[in-house]
Amino acid sequence: MTGGSISNMYAVNLARYQRFPDCKQKGLRALPPLALFTTKECHYSIKKGAAFLGLGTDSVRVVKADERGKMIPEDLERQISLAEAEGAVPFLVSATSGTTVLGAFDPLEAIADVCQRRGLWLHVDAAWGGSVLLSQTHRHLLDGIQRADSVAWNPHKLLTAGLQCSALLLRDTTNLLKRCHGSQASYLFQQDKFYDVALDTGDKVVQCGRRVDCLKLWLMWKAQGGQGLERRVNQAFALARYLAEEMKKREGFELVMEPEFVNVCFWFVPPSLRGKQESLDYSERLAKVAPVLKERMVKEGSMMIGYQPHGTRGNFFRLIVANPALTQADMDFLLNELERLGQDL
Fold first, then answer.
1. pTM for the whole thing?
2. Of 120, 128, 235, 339, which cross-links 115 as Cys (Cβ 3.0–4.6 Å)?
């Protein structure tokens, strides 16, 4: 795949085709109103894919998430029933393993139970968190992923393979990809070649010309080995935990929540705002800190950390601890640098 966004779109298209195969030839006129389900924590490509595929963004039904950003299976059941009552046909649930901001892992076993009862395709967007499966220590976060119909996985994220390196994994064994996407262009995909034509995968995808991106993953896996990649994942978790614990020791750092993954979300509270949480304008003033510090660190050339608002929360920093070259000394530098850059705020 050319990225996780395209993998997510493929999953939606495959689920639609499996349920309504006539849509390949007849298009949208062959379809009733459809509904797919995800949370507000999902990657934006889910809605973008719904628009691109002609389903419309209104077909994306938002399921409630808990305070940590995880899908609530009971509300998934409720949203499915509501969609049916409104005349829509549910066909897919998109769960997330490693959300973009909070790094949340949806409860896949419970979601898979709902999908099994309702006859829905379960897609797991594990573009960010899928590599956790390589860790014996942390793979429990993805318990239930083996029940998914499709999984998006980006080795170029947590494993730091070279861009692009993305995969779409399917449970299907009936050549669904080719049936859904194939055009049988005889000038490219001749069936009377001297070798096994099953090796010609080009007709299974939307793209025609492609790079051999899988070679990057193969080479990295060959060089690092399974244990080497596991160490890489475990090191990222360990550094994220180290950073969170160090923040607790310093005045002026406030975690948004305890990190479950390698997303460390926090506020830097400058000296002028410490001890003033009860002030009416505290949240408004705190939300202005991250943009100022981002500008200072970029102009200083010392580091670069992303920030964003989230729901009712004002701007906070989101540090992703994924680079395998990072050390505890780098984490200490980050904290010291934030203190230095924000000492006059």
1. 0.96
2. 120
Lowest mean pLDDT among 107-116, 197-206, 259-268: 197-206
pLDDT digits (tens, 9 = 90+) for 74-103: 999 999 999 999 999 999 999 999 999 999
User: Any idea which fold 235-341 has?
Assistant: Aspartate Aminotransferase, domain 1 (3.90.1150)
Chain centroid to Cα 72, Å, comes to: 17
Measured from the Cβ of residue 249, the count of other Cβ atoms closer than 10 Å reads: 8
Q: What per-residue confidence (pLDDT) applies to 200?
A: 84
pLDDT, tens digit, for every residue of 88-141?
999 999 999 999 999 999 999 999 999 999 999 999 999 999 999 999 999 999
**Nearest-angstrom CA–CA distance, 113 and 62:** 19
Q: Domains of the chain: which residue ranges? A: 4-154+167-212, 235-341
Q: How many residues does the chain have?
A: 345
CATH topology of domain 4-154+167-212: Aspartate Aminotransferase; domain 2 (3.40.640)
Phi and psi angles of residue 34, each rounded to the nearest 5 degrees, phi first: -110, 160
In the 8-state DSSP scheme, what is residue 304? -
C-alpha span between 241 and 261 (Å, rounded): 9
Residues paired with 44 in a beta bridge: none
Helix (H), strand (E), coil (C) string for the chain: CCCHHHHHHHHHHHHHHHHCCCHHHHHHHHCCCEEEEEECCCCCHHHHHHHHCCCCHHHEEEECECCCCCECHHHHHHHHHHHHHCCCEEEEEEEEECCCCCCCECCHHHHHHHHHHHCCEEEEEECCCHHHHHCCCCHHHHCCHHHCCEEEECCCCCCCCCCCCCEEEECCCCCHHHHHHCCCCCCCCCCCCCCCHHHCCHHHCCCCCCCCCHHHHHHHHHHHHHHHHHHHHHHHHHHHHHHHHHHHCCCCEEECCCCCCCEEEEEECCHHHCCCCCCCCHHHHHCCHHHHHHHHHHHHCCCCCEEEEECCEEEEEEEECCCCCCCHHHHHHHHHHHHHHCCCC
Token duo for residue 241: 């935990």
- How do beta strands 167-170 and 313-320 pair? unpaired
